[in-house]
Amino acid sequence: MPPRLRKAALVAHVASSVGWLGAVAAFLSLAITAYNTADEWTMRAAYTTMEIIGWTALLPLSVLTLLTGVIQAIGTPWGLIRHYWVLIKLLITVVATAVLLLYMETLSVLAGAAAQQAPGGIASDILPNFSPILHSAAALLVLFAALGLSIYKPRGLTGLGTPKRKPADAPEIRTTLRVKSSPPAQAGRKDLQRFQDG
User: Fold this and answer.
1) What is the rounded CA–CA span in Å between residue 184 and residue 198?
2) Residue 33: CB partners within 8 Å, gap ≥ 6?
3) What is the pLDDT along the chain (198 residues), one digit of tens a residue?
4) Contact 69, 100 (CB under 8 A)
5) Which of 61, 106, 189, 198 has the most CB atoms around its CB within 10 Å?
6) Residue 71 and residue 6: Cα distance in Å, rounded?
7) DSSP 122
8) Residue 71 and residue 8: Cα distance in Å, rounded?
């Protein structure tokens, strides 16, 4: 991947990841407010707002984080499944996105109950609900773990995406054969002298 494209992918990945983390933190603060408030109208507004944040911020940012993370991994020497920290971070993102997608149905039910319920109405048995606090707090911990993996990058290769090493070439053996030779005229004289002496 060209350097400029790699940097653009990195910016998109960091922005979406940090945005996702911030959206979860905002969601958690609303969930805590909705659960603890004594004002029913505040509770209803909080659950309605949580659903809006879920569909317009949490879900899009989680998918964007996953896509940009895959692009970033494939386009760099880290690879997608070559290093343990990248693989674990990928699994964290996939699982977190899947759980969020499944939980959106529950969140819609809670928001619908909050929107339709009149003060003291029939839906008061499911509101307030501790579930949004539990899910958002767990999501926050998981995303912090993924952030830690990105920063510390623990060593370790999985062996799944490691390029195969080529067998080392046999070392070259260089031998130099030195032959002392005399000039042709000198060689002829020495041979003649030997012949005459013999």
Assistant:
1) 21
2) 42, 46
3) 788 888 898 899 999 999 999 999 999 999 999 999 989 899 999 999 999 999 999 999 999 999 999 998 888 877 777 888 888 999 999 999 999 999 999 999 999 988 885 655 545 678 889 999 999 999 999 999 999 998 898 887 877 755 555 545 445 555 555 555 555 555 556 655 665 665
4) no
5) 61
6) 9
7) G
8) 11
